[in-house]
Amino acid sequence: MRVDNDDILRSSGTDVRKCMKCGKCSGACPSFDEMDFPPHIFVSMVERGDAAALLSSKSLWTCMSCFACVERCPRGVEPANVIEAVRASAMSPQGANRMRPEDVPVFLGAAGECLVPQQLLASAFRKYSR
Amino acid sequence: MTKIGVFVCWCGSNIAATVDVDAVSEAIKAAPGVVFATNYQYMCSEGGQAAIRSAVAEHGLTGVVVCSCSPRMHEATFRKAAAGAGVNPYMVEIANIREQCSWIHKDKAEATAKAIALARAAVAKLNLDRPLTAPETPVTKRALVIGGGIAGIQTALDVADAGYEVDVVEKSPTIGGKMAMLDKTFPTLDCAACILTPKMVDAAAHEKITLYTYSEVEKVSGFVGNFTVDIKKRARSVSVDRCTGCGVCSEKCPSKRAKSEFDQGLRERSAIYIPFAQAIPNVPVIDRDTCLKFQTGKCGLCEKVCPSHAVDYSQEDEVITKQYGAIVAATGFKPIGLERFDEYAYSRSPDVVTSLEFERLCNAAGPTKGHLVRPSDGKEPKTVVFVQCVGSREASGIGAMKGKPYCSKICCMYTAKHAMLLREKYPDSEAYVFYIDVRTPGKNFDEFYRRAAEEYGVHYIKGMVGKVCDEGNGRLTVRASDLIENRQLLIDADMVVLAAAVEPDPSARALATLLTASMDTNDFFTEAHPKLRPVESPTAGVFLSGMCQGPKDIPDTVAQAGAAAAKVIGLLSKDRLVGNPCVASCDETLCNGCSACERVCPYGAISYETKTVVDRGAKDERRVASVNEALCQGCGACTVTCPSGAMDLRGFTGRQIMAEVDAICR
Ligand SMILES: Cc1cc2nc3c(=O)[nH]c(=O)nc-3n(C[C@H](O)[C@H](O)[C@H](O)COP(=O)(O)OP(=O)(O)OC[C@H]3O[C@@H](n4cnc5c(N)ncnc54)[C@H](O)[C@@H]3O)c2cc1C
Ligand code: SF4
Ligand code: SF4
Ligand code: SF4
Ligand code: SF4
């Protein structure tokens, strides 16, 4: 899987250079203990152009999209949106087939068996319904 | 015809790297009136100024154009150099080819062409300049200090010691400011009251100092050397002359439910109260909002019990008007409100306190008499978490900008102090300090912080607290990150202390408007130059002392207060001030008396008089505008407002401006 760091920066819609490495996001994160890369490190790695290393990160799927980090970050960095941008990249890698609107019902699956991770739907919902 | 010399400055490479200075000095020789042109590496240097002097002598120059940096930088320098050579200083024009040209352009050919155009404009204007003489005004030898914290007290003492009268206006019932609330002070841990109260007493006893407490500045007019100020003395309801400060009134007062401002709301006070034992003046005020006599008409107990018959319910606010030569703003600061920081449970738990509340809880004169206990149940805390940078260093964004973008500068140090005080009082306690950075530049400051960590065993953890939960059983759970060990901590704490960001006193903005002094976006007063004129406001005669200019600890505040005093003394020691001759003047033959200019003048410098005007040989009685040249600041608002073109600014006439435009558009 390949990922373009600039794409991540763009699609997250946030400026990771504003991060002052205070760790408040990770201090607030309820999933911290389930994460290999906690939110402040996630932000830091994207900031130095290493988003590729995060594509297989466990954090992508243990982040609950609770947005506590977004609420608390004193610099307006919105770590959850960075995580979500990488997550979206992992779901639709460049060069691979992209999801078309018609596919959405397929991904949702039959009653009770959602085929995409719930986080993706939840966070997409939060992001696009804002 | 003016004989003009043009001097093009390289400003090292600042200008010369982008503008072909040879081409400029060559091209400008063709402009009308120019008899000499040259260029030089640094015009502001002694060598550059000497070049002006010798060219004046050699070519008989009567006007000088310097193509250099902004006139804000060196207009005064070049005017002085010209005057030294016998040229009228108002026959000097600056063409700004640095800020307005070399710094903002990349293409050398274009920048050079623009520099030539700017030089031509300056020459065109200079051809219409006439020699001007600066007016002189007398100086009122008295200073006004607004704010009676340590900054205001120190400035007042220093100015008074030099022999000048000083009035201090303090809005609260006592002088002392925040320093009076502190317990011990970093970096020496000496007691705040022990070093402050003698100064408060000195200020009160000084024959040259008059204190107006419980008072505010209501109106300011005039200008440097000659300000007229209205001071509103709010009714204390107690006679300062009669009261002996015995305190019987406060003791007997039945209304005791108001929160003590001085004790940060940690204690209740009576309606008639003295903020703290060493208050100056040691005279109570009646808070009319909570006084039963004022609210219901019943009571009047304090009047009856006062042995000195000092209580006087009929007192009214009083406005006094006085003259000053200089004004010092020393309005200080306050910690920001933390209502919006839900994550720290400040509004929910009484055991989550601000650092200033913590000072009061440690202070022997505080609500607990110095017995450091939890506000909720009065128990001694065993585990205390200190959070630095609460509301400081924020950027705009979704969750952010509940606070301030700047570093509050004092909280790293006072947090180290608080952690030490805790460990000293309770050696079996645990102190955790969460920090983003520990910023301790300052003499003996880093050593102080290291002492907290090394000698007092304070746990310093790099990371921020993400959430504080009030568990309801007297416990606080603190969830935080430890960035060095990359783990998340859960700490079971008895108390949490929040180092809240500081902000300017909320009254400062209105005051700045009264003083026509400028402020930055955070409402700190702006200094005239961030490096070279740090204690002067850009408004002449207005000076800055203490936290009102930016976050500062006591050593910095006192140093700045002394510096402001030195500037005030320098001003008051002059008998006369040289003013600005570039003021508005009215051509009475054109004025139709419409009053448009009077309405638009922000300095109230224009009035009307009926005069006999000679217009083309005919005598006529007319109502015409007249400019008070001492009040006029030369802003030019009237000149563009006047429908008849009667108003003109000396040195900046309409014809001169048009000549500049013509020269550029040629
Ligand atoms: C918790 C805490 C602990 C601290 N500990 C230390 C320490 O240990 N060591 C140290 O060096 N520094 C310490 N400081 C910093 C110190 O308090 C300040 O440096 C100092 O108080 C600044 O003095 P100031 O006179 O500029 O402002 P202030 O103390 O705020 O005084 C300003 C005064 O002006 C009055 N005023 C405001 N507006 C008006 C108005 N419009 N008209 C009339 N009067 C007005 C106010 O009522 C006040 O009396 C601490 C600060 C805090 C918050
Ligand atoms: S959104 Fe994800 S990373 Fe952010 S606090 Fe919630 S779980 Fe943690
Ligand atoms: S809270 Fe914001 S500024 Fe602090 S480490 Fe996380 S992303 Fe960076
Ligand atoms: S007003 Fe009267 S009772 Fe109150 S402190 Fe003064 S002298 Fe004492
Ligand atoms: S002084 Fe220290 S605690 Fe205060 S804002 Fe600056 S870095 Fe933060």
Topology:
The complex is a heterodimer of chains A (about 130) and B (about 675).
Chain A: H1 5-12, H2 24-28, H3 39-47, H4 59-62, H5 68-72, H6 79-91, H7 104-108, H8 118-129
Chain B: E1 4-9, H1 21-27, E2 34-40, H2 46-59, E3 63-68, H3 71-84, E4 92-96, H4 98-102, H5 108-128, E5 136-138, E6 142-146, H6 150-161, E7 165-169, E8 184-185, E9 190-191, H7 192-205, E10 209-212, E11 215-223, E12 226-233, H8 248-252, E13 258-259, E14 268-269, E15 272-273, E16 285-286, H9 292-296, H10 301-305, E17 318-324, E18 326-329, E19 333-335, E20 352-354, H11 355-362, E21 383-390, H12 411-425, E22 430-435, H13 445-454, E23 459-462, E24 465-470, E25 476-482, E26 487-493, E27 495-500, E28 502-504, H14 508-515, E29 542-544, H15 554-572, E30 576-578, E31 584-586, H16 596-600, E32 606-615, E33 618-627, H17 637-641, E34 647-649, H18 654-665
Parallel strand pairs in B: 1-2, 1-3, 3-4, 6-7, 6-18, 7-10, 18-29, 20-27, 21-22, 21-27, 22-23
Antiparallel strand pairs in B: 5-30, 8-9, 11-12, 12-17, 13-14, 15-16, 19-28, 24-25, 25-26, 31-34, 32-33
Helix pairs in contact in B: 1-5, 2-3, 5-18, 6-7, 6-15, 11-12, 12-13
Bound molecules: flavin-adenine dinucleotide and iron/sulfur cluster (SF4) (4 copies).
Flavin-adenine dinucleotide binds near residues 170 and 557 of chain B.
